[in-house]
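Exercise 7.
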Amino acid sequence: MPEVIKFVLLLIGAYLLGSVPSAYLVAKWRRGIDIRQYGSGNVGASNVLATVSKRWAIPVTVFDIGKGALTVWVAQLLGLGAAQQITVGIVTIIGHNWPVFLNFRGGRGAYTSLGVITMLSPKLGLIMLVLPYTLAPIRQLAVGVFIALASLPIFSWFLWQPLDIEARLPITLGLIALAGVGLIRRLTAPKTPLSKSVPLGQLFVNRLFFDRDIRDRHAWIRRTPSKTSSAERRKKARKG
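Solution. The predicted structure, written as tokens, is:
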């Protein structure tokens, strides 16, 4: 089979695997809820932790990391180059963030990105894992993720030899694209009732750095669907 066909098929498979919403499935199975309407609204392990339990956040985390790592590993097994490997990884993240199975409304892709990066450079993956958690004690994990995403291309370009990065240019360019995918997902999240009174500039800052519409973290992660929005959803469901 020609390499280009293998690459295209792998891209399709990467997107579909990335689209598998483990957090949504666990929340639906364990609590009977649409996780997009609870907590932070994020279809990811952190929201499973807030809305379901710590016990079920662990397998969701493992699965999300694993699907990012798996697709890049398959690309490596097929002998694809570094540029193709990171492209496959980015497509997996896109699938996680905009899954076809959830009307293109998914998670943020942080753990899937971790899986992709670790397969490309284990040392860089370790940085991606540790850096955000340096801010966890002050409950600013989202800011830590932002710093990690923004700094990854800098690490890969200037520290490519210590980090065992063989293809400096394609990996760095790929990490710029990877960071862009994650930050675009933050900025394009659907608006919520809590964000109606937030000025546009403040909303931009809140989403970019804190990954939420308001500064009050507790109010954000503890929010639940309003009666009005629930009624609207039921009405739409009947029409559909």
